[in-house]
Amino acid sequence: MTDPFGARLAAAVAGRGPLCVGIDPHRELLGAWGLADDVEGLRRFTDAVVGALAGTVAVLKPQSAFYERHGARGLLVLEDAVAAARAAGALVLLDAKRGDIGSTMAGYADVLADGHPMQVDALTVSPYLGPGSLEPAVRTARAHGGGLFVLARTSNPDAGTFQHARLDDGRTVAQAVVDTVGTWNGDDDGGGDGGWGPRTGSFGVVVGATLAELDVDLAGLRGPVLAPGLGAQGGTPGDLRRLFGADRAVVPTVSRDVLGAGPDPAGLRAAAERWAAELAG
Ligand SMILES: O=C(O)c1cc(=O)[nH]c(=O)n1[C@@H]1O[C@H](COP(=O)(O)O)[C@@H](O)[C@H]1O
């Protein structure tokens, strides 16, 4: 039986540091690397990032949209990259922001299951259809040692329009999302204190590093926080410390600010190492 995702993530972070690098091969970036916006360009970009970084960073986060837009052959590139990244020791967080109900949600979550041709370690999901809508994904994650990161307080400027809306009980939507995810991190699923360790929960939330202030209470989360918005969106390592302190299980994720240093593998590695050093300092 595979160890729970939270424990595996904590072990990866202990060995490699917390940095997650997003693989976002969008049109402009392919062009900046001198690659065509086609499947061959996609493959060369992806192979370069995985080859340069999968042996050293804790987590790689491919963005599914940039593979789906190239059709079935794009998905084959993603499938190969996921296998190569995991073989090199990186955890793979598939960024697809899935959200649906019942059997459809279960279908999306099958990407976490043993035997899936593109099995990943964790998946980003959207809670918009309600807390119960994500239960099938929670079940699949538990059964296969997978993890989920649920969108709670995202990094985009207008995120608060929905995420600050209030429930009848006065909590913001973002807070209700965090509280819901905290209930999934029960004693059997890690259920630690919100820091790194073998009991780090397998169910996390997304909270942007771009926030002016931390306007959700993470005390009951007991799982990891994925923090995007660093670099290109303006967030800094100082913002991370200001928002989350030093003791919380936070996975800072950077895409453009590392990917822009390619295609030279040494350049990619140097950019990731720079971020890792700044995050450690
Ligand atoms: O889930 C995410 O990764 C995510 C959540 C969020 O709140 N904001 C956010 O930018 N992201 C993702 O992070 C990537 C952009 O990273 P940067 O290029 O570093 O800004 C994209 O793939 C976004 O979908």
From TrEMBL:
Pathway: Pyrimidine metabolism; UMP biosynthesis via de novo pathway; UMP from orotate: step 2/2. It holds the Pfam family OMPdecase. SUPFAM superfamilies: Ribulose-phoshate binding barrel. Its EC number is 4.1.1.23. It catalyses: orotidine 5'-phosphate + H(+) = UMP + CO2. Keywords: Decarboxylase, Lyase, Pyrimidine biosynthesis. It is an enzyme of class 4 (lyase). CDD domains: OMP_decarboxylase_like. The active site is at 97 (proton donor). Residues 18-271 form the Orotidine 5'-phosphate decarboxylase domain. The keyword Lyase applies. It comes from the Bacteria. One of its GO terms (biological process) is 'de novo' pyrimidine nucleobase biosynthetic process. One of its GO terms (molecular function) is orotidine-5'-phosphate decarboxylase activity. Belongs to the OMP decarboxylase family. Type 2 subfamily. This is Orotidine 5'-phosphate decarboxylase. It comes from Klenkia brasiliensis.
